[in-house]
Structure formats: C-alpha cells, structure tokens
Automatic annotation (TrEMBL):
Name of the protein in its database record: Alcohol dehydrogenase
Gene Ontology molecular-function annotations: NADPH binding; oxidoreductase activity, acting on NAD(P)H
Domain Enoyl reductase (ER): 9-307
Keyword Nuclease found: no
Keywords linked to the UniProt accession: NADP, Oxidoreductase
Phylogenetic lineage: Bacteria, Bacillati, Actinomycetota, Actinomycetes, Kitasatosporales
Protein source organism: Streptomyces shenzhenensis
PANTHER family named in the record: QUINONE OXIDOREDUCTASE PIG3-RELATED
Length: 310
C-alpha cells in the first residue's frame, strides 16, 4: 500500500511511497482511508531528525471499514468511520473500537477527517470547564483547528464566547461560527472571563490568566506562539477578586484507556448534518502534500488542511 512517510531529503520531510500493509490485531478493524487531516504537531514532528525515514505518521483519518475486528468489537464492514491513532497517513489503517466513530454513509470523508485531534480536544477541554451556560469563555488561537471547533462547541453550550485571533480577516468568520466578541489579543479584553482554552501560550497565556475572574481556570492546550510564558510575581496574587484561579494542563492522549468512540460518532453526526463547520481551509489530493505542509508550517493556515487519497 502507499503511505506518506518521513523523508528528510524532501522539503516537507514527507514523501509518498510503498510500505507493508498493517496486520490488524483481533480487536482492530481494518479501514481503507479516504482522507486525512494534518495537525501542526505531527507535521512538525516529521521535521525532527530523530524521526527515522520511512516512519508513517498521522493521527486523523476517515474512511470505510474493509474488515471488521475479528473479536466482533466495533463497526461492520462497509461502515464509514472517523479514526484516531498512529500511522493514519496510509491507504490502510488498523484501529481499535475505542479510537473509531461511525458516520453517515454520505458524509464527506474530508470533513470527517478534521474531527479527531481538533474536535476531540475542543470537546474534552470544554467539558472540563463544567457548565458553560451564561459564562464568558475565552478561546485563543480561535482561527485554528482546535479553536474553530472550540468556538462552535462553546457557543452551542451557551457560553458567551470571547475569541482571540491576530487576524482581522478572521473576525467575521469567527462571529459566524458563534463568537460574541473577537479581539486581536487577550490584553484587549475588558471584562473578566470564567475560563480560557489557550492554544497559543507565551504572552497570550499570561494575559489570558490575568483576565480570569475568581475561581476561573485556564486550560493550556498548545503553545502555537512557541514563546515562553513568564508570569510576573504579582500575576499570582489572589487579591482584588482574583483568588482561586488555576492553570491546568491538557493532553488528549493523557489517559490511554479513554474510549473516544461515542464522541467521535457524535461529532461525525454533527458535521454530516451541517451543524458543525469542519473549518477546511486547504484541500487537495495527497500527491500535493508538500504544498499543504508548507502552508501549515509557515503558519498561513486558518483552519484545517485536508488531503484526499486519490
Ligand atoms: N494538548 C493537546 O492534547 C493538544 C491537542 C491538539 C492540539 N494541541 C496544540 O494546540 C495548538 C493549537 O492546535 P491547532 O491544531 O488548532 O493549531 P493551528 O491550526 O495551527 O492553530 C493555531 C492558531 O494559533 C494562532 N497562532 C499561531 N501562531 C501564533 C503566534 N505566534 N501568536 C499568537 N497566535 C498564534 C493562529 O491564530 P490567529 O492567526 O488567528 O491568531 C492559529 O490559527 C498547537 O500548539 C497544537 O500543537 C495540543
């Protein structure tokens, strides 16, 4: 089968080549992949010299089950599915039931492929915030893959969504997705917020933390800015209504026993019904992978890059 593998001689550190097909374990379904989406993390991972040539990367993929799991778990042959895991940038992927959601037959695999890392991260972080009804929630890096899902899901949950994007051109789009306010940086936000989903880190994290009301939490998801977050000593004072604030870490794969299947299936249904926007901002056949990788690494992408396997 063909797969997109690490190749340090190529400009994007990836190339299409033939590799052995996966041999599914008894608890794994074999999926014919139709589309994959790229995340900054894994594309950046391919550039690291420690990653040997020939490694198949890729967390997000959507396709059709061509062989159900031998132990009877998971979906039947012919079901359209969205999948999470390792080695997804390949024509075939072996996936356990916990990392696979089912989707309507007519759902667009490209749209489905945007769900796993970005959609699940947004959903799981927002759930950790508790009830969002009537609360002000800030989302930094709101125009990105995680951010767009977070804006939509927070608005659906009844939050007053405060979106942060450096790009003025993204403001209308973010409002259409459900943002009530759009600001270029957290320091521009006047009213306190109850919770923050921070995709950016650095000064964004510092200023977003300062905007939390008493009892509020900031969830540190990513550091797209690649900058250090330096908290001045008085940033940690708890006076003047700033008591009991916290910074919490998050890692989607933190608990390897998590069963994501119900959430993947729900998100797939929402995408298929048009109630969630997958935020695709670059799409093409996987033979054009180097273009997608360049846009992503140059930070020119606002949303998801999708590769169709045709
Ligand atoms: N912890 C986890 O389990 C987990 C899961 C998923 C993702 N992540 C991490 O979370 C982050 C977001 O992921 P993603 O897939 O949404 O990434 P993405 O699609 O690249 O979006 C990141 C957004 O951050 C903003 N941004 C980028 N560079 C910035 C800078 N220097 N200063 C301020 N804002 C900047 C951009 O928005 P604007 O240009 O509109 O400001 C961009 O759209 C990444 O760091 C990723 O590695 C972590």
């Amino acid at each position: 089968m063909r797969a997109l593998v690490v190749d340090h001689t190529s400009p994007g550190h990836l190339s299409l080549t033939d590799v052995p097909a996966p041999r599914p374990a008894a608890h794994e379904a074999l999926v014919r992949v139709e589309a994959v989406s790229l995340n900054f993390g894994e594309v950046h991972e391919a550039t690291r010299p420690e990653r040997p040539d020939g490694t198949v990367l890729g967390w997000d993929a959507a396709g059709v089950v061509v062989q159900a799991a031998a132990d009877g778990s998971g979906p039947a042959e012919g079901e359209r599915v969205v999948t999470l895991g390792e080695a997804g940038w390949a024509e075939l992927r072996a996936v356990p039931a916990a990392l696979l959601g089912t989707a309507p037959k007519d759902a667009d695999p490209g749209a489905l492929s945007t769900i796993p890392v970005a959609g699940l991260t947004a959903l799981h972080v927002l759930r950790r915030m508790g009830s969002l009804l009537g609360r002000r929630v800030m989302i930094t890096g709101a125009s990105g893959g995680v951010g767009r899902y977070a804006v939509q899901l927070a608005a659906r949950a009844g939050a007053h969504v405060v979106a942060i994007s450096r790009s003025a051109a993204q403001a209308d789009r973010l409002r259409a997705l459900g943002a009530h306010e759009v600001h270029p940086e957290p320091a521009a936000v006047q009213q306190p917020v109850s919770a923050v989903l921070d995709n950016v880190g650095g000064q964004h994290l510092v200023d977003a933390f300062a905007s939390l009301s008493a009892g509020g939490s900031l969830f540190s998801v990513g550091r797209s800015s690649e900058a250090d977050a330096v908290l001045a000593p008085d940033a940690l004072l708890g006076d003047g209504g700033r008591h009991d604030r916290s910074i919490r870490t998050f890692f989607l794969f933190g608990d390897p026993t998590t069963d994501f299947s119900a959430d993947l299936t729900w998100l797939a249904g929402e995408i298929a019904a048009g109630r969630l926007d997958p935020g695709i901002s670059w799409r093409g056949p996987w033979t054009r992978h180097s273009e997608a990788v360049k846009v992503l690494l140059d930070r020119r992408l606002h949303g998801k890059a999708v590769l169709d396997l045709k």
